[in-house]
Design goal:
The complex is a heterodimer of chains A (404) and B (143). In chain A, strand 5 (143-147), helix 6 and strand 6 form a beta-alpha-beta unit. Chain A has helices at residues 17-23, 40-60, 73-87, 103-114, 132-138, 161-171, 245-283, 310-316, 337-341, 346-350, 363-382, 385-391, and strands spanning 5-6, 67-70, 94-98, 118-122, 143-147, 174-178, 197-201, 212-216, 287-289, 300-305, 320-321, 323-324, 352-356, 399-400. In chain A, helix 1 packs antiparallel against helix 7 (245-283), helix 3 (73-87) runs parallel beside helix 4 and helix 7 crosses helix 11. In chain A, the strands form three sheets. Chain A has a seven-stranded mixed sheet, sandwiched between helices. A four-stranded antiparallel sheet of chain A has the order 9-10-13-12. Chain A is α/β, with parallel strands linked by helices. Helix content of chain A is 39%, strand content 14%. The mean pLDDT of chain A is 96. By secondary structure, chain B is of the alpha+beta class. Chain B has a three-stranded antiparallel sheet with strand order 1-2-3. In chain B, strand 2 and strand 3 (54-62) form a beta hairpin. The N and C termini of chain B lie far apart (41 Å). Classes of the chains: A alpha/beta (404), B alpha+beta (143). At the A-B interface, helix 8, helix 10, helix 12 and strand 14 of A face strand 1, strand 2, strand 3, helix 2 and helix 5 of B.
Chain lengths: 404, 143
């Protein structure tokens, strides 16, 4: 087993060697500009892009004309949300989103608020999911867009996308979903989900960084977007800029592999994730799972190790790459806003660790992580005044702490 | 984030982890910080009634590596010092010794508060004037 172990697949994934192999000729041999319609170099590039578009479309049940290539999901989210807000300005100015969205959605919405849009940030329930009643209640005759992520990047919790899609359809409101954590991991179909706009990213599914796509529905309804990049009119005028051909080829290949292998890979990872969860619970008490276990990505686990601070835990497992919602690991010194939104208390947010398993995770690695975490958590609890107080019967919630 | 070797050393080999009997008249206990802020330090000193020197010091810390290192270092420094010498320890001494980056300065402040709170607790037990700066940082169970 090679150390360090990578168990942070929500953050990014390595490029699959098959993806890299598909990409390589497009850096050197087939370097043409896909927009060069008048020579063989351009044709080769265009053909590769067409193939990739088909591979991405097939993964999500879309038509090839509905796939717009971008630089990644942040750009896709910006284009979808700003593009709709501008294009449908006459119809209304109200957007509904959720407090646990990725910053690429939240900050885009905040910017639109400054420009006069009205945004509702739905709360989440304890399990990390929005309430459909809250969603219905938030809709007004000025609502033009609902944007709710398919799965959360920190806790892996799946939102009820199909139900949200049905409500949006019934009310005639466009529905965008940031599906970066879902596409390529579990089945996702744009028609079953009744979505109109979908953001996805290559590097979350074993493709390269710097490339992604936005699905834009063409029929029932035909979604129009105000372009955010002006220039040569690439991508049906919605996203100008010379296409990143090697990246797009990589995204396509990654999508194809995901489509073919997703079912088996999902099952394998679910088994490993459950092994990790069971192993930790067998060895340690006072573990709290953040978010719904039922509605969750199969490769995802987020646990709070009560009475142990997250960054000190990460220091102890320095040969395992995981991440924490602890404030000490963030630039802002605020604990994870996603975990705070679950209402579990800031102390548990400080104690959280996110595990993301993936294509190259092995059973031996999972067992190593269980042992390592067990040792370090026990050691740090021996050092924790909170653990000692709880064992002495002190109710921590009744203490008057002096914050500063 | 890169940690200094001294922080890593205190994290890997913390000095004086543990507890002293908190009801002992010669033991002072300081408990500072809050779980929701991600840092809680308990620091205890045992003071020799004849010499006024700190014979023993122990800590337990819930917090990041720098918080653990700051409290571990504090206990190391406290042993053998008089109460007045202990009160002269400044958070900046800890920052310099551990090479803490700016975002971790609060860990050293907490350690200084913990020292002051422990000594204030000792003085209170001794019926002495407990007027020690930052002593109000001592957490108390609600009545």
């Amino acid at each position: 087993m090679k150390l360090p172990i990578y168990m942070d697949y929500h953050a990014t994934t390595p490029v699959d060697p098959r993806v890299l192999e598909a990409m390589l000729p497009f850096f050197t041999e087939h370097f043409g500009n896909a927009a060069s319609r008048n020579h063989a170099f351009g044709w080769a590039a265009e053909q590769a892009v067409d193939q990739a578009r088909k591979q991405v479309a097939d993964l999500i049940g879309a038509n090839v004309k509905e796939v717009i290539f971008t630089s990644g999901a942040t750009e896709s989210n910006n284009l979808a949300i700003k593009g709709v807000a501008e294009m449908y300005r006459e119809k209304g100015n109200h957007i509904i989103t959720c407090v646990t969205e990725h910053k690429a959605v939240i900050d885009t919405c905040k910017k639109l608020e400054k420009q006069g849009a009205r945004v509702t940030y739905l709360p989440v329930q304890k399990d990390g999911r929005i309430s459909l009643d809250d969603l219905r209640a938030a809709i007004t005759d000025k609502t033009i867009l609902i944007t709710i992520m398919a799965a959360n990047n920190e806790i892996g919790v799946l939102q009820p996308i199909e139900e949200i899609g049905a409500i949006a359809k019934e009310k005639g409101i466009l529905f965008h979903t940031d599906a970066v954590q879902v596409v390529g991991k579990i089945p996702f179909d744009v028609n079953a989900s009744k979505v109109d706009l979908v953001s996805l990213s290559a590097h979350k599914m074993y493709g390269p960084k710097g490339v992604g796509a936005l699905y834009v529905r063409r029929r029932n309804p035909r979604v129009l977007l105000s372009e955010q990049n002006n220039g040569g009119g690439h991508e049906r005028g919605m996203r100008s800029g010379t296409l990143n051909v090697p990246g797009i080829v990589g995204l396509g290949k990654a999508a194809e592999i995901a489509r073919l292998e997703m079912a088996a890979e999902g099952e394998r990872l679910r088994t490993l994730r459950d092994r990790l969860n069971a192993g930790l619970h067998k060895n340690l008490d006072e573990l709290y799972i953040n978010g719904s276990m039922e509605h969750r990505l199969p490769h995802s686990l987020n646990i709070s190790f009560a009475y142990v601070e997250g960054e000190s835990l990460l220091m102890g497992v320095s040969d395992v790459a995981v991440s924490s919602g602890s404030a000490c690991t963030s630039a802002s010194l605020e604990p994870s806003y996603v975990l705070k939104a679950l209402g579990a208390g800031d102390d548990l947010a400080h104690s959280s660790i996110r595990f993301g398993l993936g294509r190259f995770t092995t059973e031996a690695e999972v067992d190593y992580v269980i042992d390592k975490l067990t040792t370090v958590v026990r050691r740090l609890r021996e050092m924790s005044p909170l653990y000692e107080m709880v064992k002495e019967g002190v109710d921590l919630s009744k203490m008057q702490w002096v914050t500063h | 984030m890169a940690y200094s070797n001294k922080v890593l050393d205190h994290y890997e080999n913390p000095r004086n982890v543990g507890s002293l009997p908190k009801d002992d008249a010669h033991v002072g206990t300081g408990l500072v910080g809050a779980p929701e802020c991600g840092d809680v330090m308990k620091l205890q000193v045992k003071i020799n009634p004849d010499t006024g020197v700190i014979d023993d010091a122990k800590f337990k810390t819930f917090g990041c590596g720098s918080a653990i290192a700051s409290s571990s270092l504090a206990t190391e420094w406290l042993k053998g010092k008089t109460v007045d010498e202990a009160l002269a320890i400044k958070n900046t001494d800890i920052v310099n010794e551990l090479a803490l980056p700016p975002v971790k300065i609060h860990c050293s402040v907490l350690a200084e508060d913990a020292i002051k709170a422990a000594i204030a607790d000792y003085r209170k037990k001794q019926g002495q004037d407990a007027d020690v700066p930052a002593a109000e940082a001592h957490a108390q169970p609600n009545a």
